Amino acid sequence: MNEETEIILDDLRDEWMSIVDEEGHGGPVEEPPKAAPDGPRGRGRPGWTDDLFREHWLEAWHATKPPRSFPMVAANFRQLDGGLGIDPDHLRKTYWKHGSPTPE
Fold first, then answer.
1. What's residue 1's pLDDT?
2. Is 2 left (phi over 0), alpha (psi -120 to 50) or beta?
3. pLDDT in the model for residue 17
4. So what's the pLDDT on residue 36?
5. Which pLDDT does position 39 carry in this prediction?
6. How far apart, in whole angstroms, are the C-alpha atoms of residue 56 and residue 28?
7. How many CA atoms are closer than 13 Å to the CA of 44, on its beta-carbon side?
8. To bridge 48 with a disulfide, which of 10, 20, 24, 53 should be the other Cys (CB 3.0-4.6 Å)?
9. DSSP state of 25
10. Of all helices (H) and strands (E), which one includes residue 89?
C-alpha cells in the first residue's frame, strides 16, 4: 500500500468514526417516541362489552324467524363495523363469553 492510499484510508476511517455512535450504529441517534398523552393504547378497535353485545344479539334474534339457530342468527347479526353477518362459530363463542343474553 502506498503513502497516498494510506492517507485516503485514514481520512475515510476518521470520517466513518465520526458518524458511528458508541455502540457501533451509524447515523444520528433519535429520541424514542413519546407516549400518547392519554396513556398507552391497545392494538385495534375496542372489543365487545356485555351491554353492546346484548343489544346486537337481541336485534339479530328478533330479525330471525323461528326456529332460530346460531347460523340463522349469525346471518342477521350486526358487526361492530356495521357489517351484516358473522361467522356462526365466532358468534357462539362471543355469546357464551358475554353471558348468553336471552330475549325478554
1. 63
2. beta
3. 62
4. 47
5. 47
6. 52
7. 5
8. 53
9. -
10. helix 88-97
Query: Residue type for 12, please?
Result: L
Residue 70: the pLDDT is 93
Three-state SS string across the chain, please?
CCHHHHHHHHHHHHHHHHHECCCCCECCCCCCCCCCCCCCCCCCCCCCCHHHHHHHHHHHHHHCCCCCCHHHHHHCCECCCCCECCCHHHHHHHHHHCCCCCCC
List the chain domain ranges. 50-97
Q: Which residues of the chain have pLDDT under 50?
A: 29, 35-36, 39
> Using an 8 Å Cβ cutoff, are 86 and 79 in contact?
yes
The cell for 15 is: 470520517
How far apart are alpha carbons 44 and 94 in whole angstroms?
A: 17
Contact 60, 73 (CB under 8 A): yes
SS3 state at 59? helix
Residue 86 grid coordinates = 358473522
- The reply to whether the predicted model has a pTM over 0.90 is no
